[in-house]
Specification:
- The protein is built from 1 helix and 13 strands; from the N terminus they run αβββββββββββββ.
- With 281 residues, it is mainly beta.
- The protein has a domain of 194 residues.
- It has a 10-stranded antiparallel β-barrel. The protein has a two-stranded antiparallel sheet with strand order 5-6.
- A hairpin with a 7-residue loop joins strand 12 and strand 13.
């Protein structure tokens, strides 16, 4: 299956979940219920998530000609990470929230081709350690323009403060393939403030036990600078009045930043299955 087909299937699944959520809300009772009758009534919600992430993409230094591929060249594979969200619903339909998602992976491999990163050459056959540190903190505002007893449909605007550092280190090898006792390394960082917006929903499918479907799609295109998109969909279960759990799949982030003479070219995708728990008060 081609990469294009995989992306098409992913987006079709996300859009299908959005349609299900919208239809579920529109088919719910037409008269607005009092907030005390809503299944999703709360003032503060704290969520934690586990993500089994598959990183992919590439990075290219400011003076480099060929990008370094995270999977082909550095052997990055799936790893476990997590995230958190704090949501304050300060009126019936208005939210202020903050999201934090860290990503870290590291791998030692033997190069099957010569690569150049930040002007430093790492020869074929050499052993290198590649590491990728990235995270984003995202304060945001959400307005639920549809809110019913069985759920809501809202629009969110958030500012992703994205920070990433990619580093390659080789011990006992220098440019040209000579062997010595020193350590050769090259590192580059990218700090990108990225505003994004998009729809999100939650719809309760059953009364007791309460089973719900939720999803979101956030993104923005920045013309010559790059683009960003993230999405998630999950099926959840309300265990008690204050505790819910869920599981699903997420495109946690897909960041593309076009390089320049003083900026890394960065293409990074983090995606995979997730599980989460939330506490509502």
């Amino acid at each position: 299956m081609s990469a294009g087909s995989k992306w098409r299937i992913l987006w079709e699944c996300v859009l299908a979940m959005m349609v299900v959520g919208i239809l579920g809300l529109l088919s719910a009772e037409r008269v607005r219920a009092q907030s005390s009758d809503e299944f999703d009534e709360y003032k503060v919600r704290i969520s934690g998530a586990y993500l089994y992430s598959w990183p992919s993409g590439s990075v290219k230094g400011t003076a480099d000609q060929v990008p370094v591929d995270f999977q082909r060249d550095l052997g990055f594979s799936a790893y476990s990470t997590g995230g958190a969200r704090f949501d304050w619903k300060f009126t019936h339909k208005n939210h202020f929230y903050v999201v934090f998602n860290p990503f870290y992976t590291s791998k030692t491999v033997v190069l099957d081709r010569t690569i150049t990163y930040q002007g430093q050459t790492f020869e074929v056959g050499g052993t290198v350690n590649g590491s990728l540190h990235s995270y984003f903190v995202a304060p945001g505002y959400q307005y639920d323009f549809i809110r019913r007893r069985r759920g809501h449909l809202g629009i969110a605007v958030q500012a992703n403060l994205f920070n990433a550092t990619a580093k390659i280190t080789a011990t006992g090898q220098v440019s040209g393939g000579a062997v010595g006792g020193g350590t050769t390394s090259a590192s580059g960082s990218l700090l990108a403030p990225i505003p994004v917006a998009g729809p999100e929903f939650r719809v309760y499918l059953t009364d007791s036990p309460r089973v719900f479907l939720e999803g979101n799609v956030y993104g923005m295109y920045f013309f010559g600078y790059g683009n960003f998109v993230s999405s998630a969909g999950s099926l959840g279960f309300t265990l008690t009045r204050h505790i819910s759990v869920g599981a699903g799949y997420t495109l946690a982030s897909r960041l593309n930043v076009n390089g320049s003479s003083d900026r890394l070219a960065f293409d990074l995708t983090q995606k995979g299955p997730l599980a989460n728990v939330e506490f509502s008060f």
